[in-house]
Amino acid sequence: MAEQTPKETKATKSKTSPGEFIRQVRSETSKVVWPSREETVRTAIFVFILVLILSLFFLGVDSLFGAVVRWLLTLL
Predict the structure, then answer these.
(1) Where are the domains of the chain?
(2) How far is 17 from 15, CA to CA, in rounded Å?
């Protein structure tokens, strides 16, 4: 079994010129489906509500654990 050298295992890559790179970026960017203003606002409101709900949940969990720890410390 002959072992391959690292040079043989790598695929050969040709360098891309800066102009070609810019053309490729523009081509790929034109394929992106951008959300409408309404979708963006709706998503932002949903994220805000979800963050508010989760922050209240974690505040409750933290307060509960804090109360339990304080109670346990009074037993000592």
Answers:
(1) 37-76
(2) 7
